[in-house]
Design a protein that fits this description.
The protein is about 35% helix and about 25% strand. β9 and β10 form a beta hairpin. The model has no long low-confidence stretch (mean pLDDT about 95). It folds into two domains: about 70 residues, Arc Repressor Mutant, subunit A (Orthogonal Bundle), CATH 1.10.10; about 190 residues, Rossmann fold (3-Layer(aba) Sandwich). The chain has a six-stranded mixed sheet with strand order 4-3-7-8-9-10, sandwiched between helices. A two-stranded antiparallel ribbon has the order 1-2. A two-stranded antiparallel ribbon has the order 5-6.
């Protein structure tokens, strides 16, 4: 079947978006569309230009006989700023304030559009970093972790508070919560991660960082490497920050229970 150029461009774009960071040989597209490599190269140049103009991402060309192209998601800080501003406005809604100063975030983490946009921004920051897997802890961080992983084309592993028979043999560690100073437990299946893996830790909220430090300790049990740490929201005012090198989209600076006022602003994503 012979494809028209417009059909090739649409199908090629769809394929590249579905296979981020995967090397796609020119011969694959040439055989897929029964077209010459020179025509495919011209098509890819159009796709690359459109991706970059529209803030979707970019294509990286790998030369040589075994070369091809790779799609990387790329979101500029200028493009990310309107979304983060909108996210701050959502989080700052006074109706979110719960007894004890907690915030209701379930609707935000359950909104596919919000989570996908946040996932794209975080993934863009680590698009060219060696990452084999995204790690999070159950349960609220799971949607965000999957959104990030889908843009990086890597699997997700989920650390749990207790073991489940469906997980098989597990590794269990104790860690100290950064906010409550209580000893807690986290569990991870032995089959979930390979030795020496490069792991991006993703979570929805970070206060002092005790949970993140627990995940880092868990990775040490697998001789794995921390490729990065990213959170949707961080609490700015903490007595002791246990994690130094991390990325956040939003900072929660203050919660005034009496006045029902939540102060939030841009995270360190825009300064890193």
């Amino acid at each position: 079947m012979k494809f028209r150029r417009s059909e090739r461009l649409i199908d090629m774009t769809h394929y590249l978006l579905d296979h981020p960071r995967q090397l796609v040989p020119l011969t694959f597209f040439a055989e897929r569309y029964s077209s010459a490599k020179s025509s495919i190269s011209e098509d890819l140049a159009i796709v690359k230009e459109t991706f970059e103009q529209r803030g979707i991402g970019t294509l990286q060309t790998v030369p040589g006989a075994a070369g091809g192209v790779k799609f990387f998601v790329k979101v500029s800080k200028e493009e990310a700023r309107p979304f983060v501003k909108e996210l701050c406005e959502l989080i700052a809604e006074s109706e979110r304030l719960l007894p004890g100063g907690y915030l209701y975030m379930t609707d935000i983490l359950g909104n596919p559009q919000v989570v996908q946009n946040a996932g794209r921004i975080i993934a863009s920051a680590y698009a060219e970093t060696k990452i084999d897997v995204v790690m999070t802890i159950a349960t609220k961080g799971i949607p965000l972790a999957y959104a990030v992983a889908s843009q990086l084309n890597v699997p997700v592993i989920i650390v749990r508070r207790d073991s489940k028979v469906t997980e098989g043999p597990t590794v269990s560690i104790n860690y100290v919560s950064g906010s409550t100073k209580r000893i807690q437990t986290m569990v991870l299946s032995k089959r979930s991660i390979k030795q020496e893996s490069h792991v991006l830790i993703v979570d929805d909220f970070m206060k002092a960082g005790g949970t993140v430090m627990g995940m880092i300790s868990m990775l040490e049990e697998f001789n794995a490497h921390v490729a990065g740490i990213a959170v949707l929201v961080e609490a700015e005012k903490t007595e002791e920050r246990l994690v130094d090198d991390y990325l956040s989209l939003v900072k929660l600076s203050d919660v005034n229970v009496k006045e029902k006022k939540i102060n939030v602003h841009e995270g360190n994503y825009f300064t890193k």
